[in-house]
């Protein structure tokens, strides 16, 4: 059965929405299940990491310092379903000092963000995240 372009586009959008739903539930195992084994993760203003284990380690570091929920998520995808983009608003709390950043005192923040995705074989093969770090620092009192 051949899947038409609209179906591939819809599947890509569903995949990204499922990824963010798992994020908001705190279900890291469900997030990892949606990733390709060789997933590429481009950190905001940082390094590129490769593989599910590196991604899992990143999430453990994030979960130790931040409590976040994403709201107002909008996802767009190419017709062939190979790439997608998302925009959202992060509602977060800074729980524990993160290396190189201001001290944590439970500060709350609201920050627009976005991500770009490559999708291969119904799995997320790349996630490139973006948010304005200077805006975040200003909000947490850096």
Low-confidence blocks of residues: none
Query: pLDDT average, as an integer?
Result: 94
Number of strands: 6
Separation of the first and last Cα atoms:
55 Å
How are strands sequenced across the largest beta sheet?
2-1-6-5-4-3
Pairing-aware structural class of the strands and helices?
alpha+beta
Task: Give the helix/strand layout.
Layout: H1 5-25, H2 28-33, E1 35-42, E2 48-50, H3 52-65, E3 66-77, E4 83-94, E5 108-120, E6 123-131, H4 133-139
Parallel strand pairs: 1-6
Antiparallel strand pairs: 1-2, 3-4, 4-5, 5-6
Quickly list its features:
alpha+beta, 6-stranded mixed sheet, 6 strands, 40% strand, 34% helix, 142 residues, Nuclear Transport Factor 2, Chain: A, globular
Task: Tell me about this structure.
The longest helix has 21 residues. The N and C termini lie far apart (55 Å). A 6-stranded mixed beta sheet has the order 2-1-6-5-4-3. It has 4 helices and 6 strands, in the order ααββαββββα. By secondary structure, the protein is of the alpha+beta class.
Concise account of the structure shown:
This protein has 142 residues and is of the alpha+beta class. It is 34% helix and 40% strand.
